[in-house]
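Thanks for the sequence, V.! I ran GTPase Der right away. Repeating your input here for the record:
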Amino acid sequence: MAFMIAIVGRPNVGKSRLFNRLIESQTAIVHDFEGVTRDRQYGDGDWFGRPFTVVDTGGFVPRDEDPMLMQMRHQAQLAVDEADAIIFVVDGRAGLAGADQEIFELLRTTDKPVYLAVNKIDTWSGQEQYLVDFYQLGVPLYPLSAEHGIGLDPLMDDVMEDA
Ligand code: GDP
Ligand code: MG
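Predicted structure:
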């Protein structure tokens, strides 16, 4: 079994962009399983020879009555349950949102290592203003830009350290 990495976070923070970055230029195929795992997308890669499987989730939405949103939440929970490590993605330009905090509280209940990817830090001109809020969550923090492929190496070096 390859080391399993789950990407979680509220919608629109850049989870899928990060997912695609991590598996780009990899030979392996993105799997689309049928049935209950339909909303989780799996991709394989390797980090300096160490294989991993990364799971993208639709979005770890807040509790809601909407069945579709609850289904998305359930899929994210399943991804966390099966993961060896979790990349928690937030939007570094938007600051710490209530939905981020709610997800973080859920992640605290797992004993899996959590790495905070502060995404959309495309440049260092005025986009770092919220980092201090994210630091207060007290987990290892990685400013990055999934869009531009900046800052991924320090994150993956640490995520894959125990793989
Ligand atoms: P998801 O809903 O969390 O999977 O988010 P997506 O990967 O679909 O990205 C949501 C939006 O954020 C898209 O318009 C992306 O182009 C944009 N986005 C993702 N990563 C970055 C980034 O590093 N910088 C910027 N500026 N935009 C990004
Ligand atoms: Mg997505």
